[in-house]
Amino acid sequence: MVIIPSGKGTIGGENFRSFQNEEPIYQVTINTSYALSETEITFEQYDLFCHETNIQCPNDDGWGRGQQPVINVTWADAMAYTEWLTKKTGVTYRLPSEAEWEFAARAGRNSKFWWGNEYEQGLDHCDRDLGDCPQGSDLAHPWKVGILTSNPFGLYDVTSNVAEWVLDCASDSHDNATGNHEPNYSGNCSDKIVKGANWLDAQPYVHHSSRMSLPKYYTSYAVGFRTLREIRK
User: Fold this and answer.
1) Across the chain, what does the average pLDDT equal?
2) 19 pLDDT exceeds 90?
3) How far, in Å, CA of 30 to CA of 8, rounded?
4) What is the pLDDT of residue 16?
5) Which long-range contacts (CB under 8 A, 24 or more apart) does 17-25 make?
6) What is the pLDDT of residue 14?
7) H/E element holding 100?
8) For residues 37 and 155, what is the distance between their CA atoms, to the nearest angstrom?
9) What three-state secondary structure class fits 47?
10) pLDDT (tens digit per residue) in 68-101
11) Residue 95's closest CA among 85, 109, 110, 108?
């Protein structure tokens, strides 16, 4: 886990695809620091949960387990993992809200990416069509977590590997955003938001404001999650 400090930042961006409405851009205020897992939850971590709770482990689609990001998990699965982790540790774990996720991914910055406004191949994402991917990230599937560059907060893979479930209910814009760390529950709560780009995305669609809505019991080889730990005052 890495500590995400309180602060102000930008959420949202241009609307690249009609089903991923990222507008309007707005300013968020994060009043309380929190901890976020530095990488997406791995199969190694999730399999421990499966074995301890006697549930079926998700399919890795033949791409390996261990330090691969866990895939084929629903929003409900991700929530169950955080509830188990809370009970096991006595500390509150949960999914991040969309605002908490994007603030952390941008490292509190106002630019399109945590490094600036222009895409840089191989820094935090690999577009295989462009070539020159760092070793291990040129695969036609997700790669091991943490092999590319971390952002200034210490988070890896915020525009790569898998998109990530967050708490917020589905919405087609940021019109009803809370403006703080709280999730937006005003939309269709049978569907949930997933954030960030994934290993399938070509360069024009790679950005921290990327969002889409999926049914909360949907599984995909391109969707996983990371966890948030609340910091007690």
Assistant:
1) 94
2) no
3) 6
4) 60
5) 17/205, 19/212, 19/213, 20/210, 20/211, 20/212, 21/172, 21/173, 21/211, 22/174, 22/209, 22/210, 22/211, 23/173, 23/174, 24/173, 24/174, 24/175, 25/174, 25/209
6) 77
7) helix 98-105
8) 7
9) helix
10) 999 999 999 999 999 999 999 999 999 999 999 9
11) 85
Pick from 20-24, 117-121, 223-227: least confident: 20-24
Among left, alpha and beta (phi > 0; psi -120 to 50; other), residue 108 is left
- Phi, psi (rounded to 5 degrees) for 8: -120, 145
Note the pLDDT of residue 69: 98
Tell me the two tokens of residue 201: 């995305």
Q: Is the pLDDT of residue 15 over 90?
A: no
C-alpha separations of 46 from 65, 224, 225 in Å: 10, 11, 11
Task: Give burial (CB, 10 Å; 0-12/13-18/19+) of 50.
Answer: middle
DSSP tag of 126 = -
Q: How far apart are CA 23 and CA 171, in angstroms?
A: 11
List the structure tokens of 223.
């969707």
Supply angle C-alpha 148, 77, 200, rounded to 5. Answer: 40
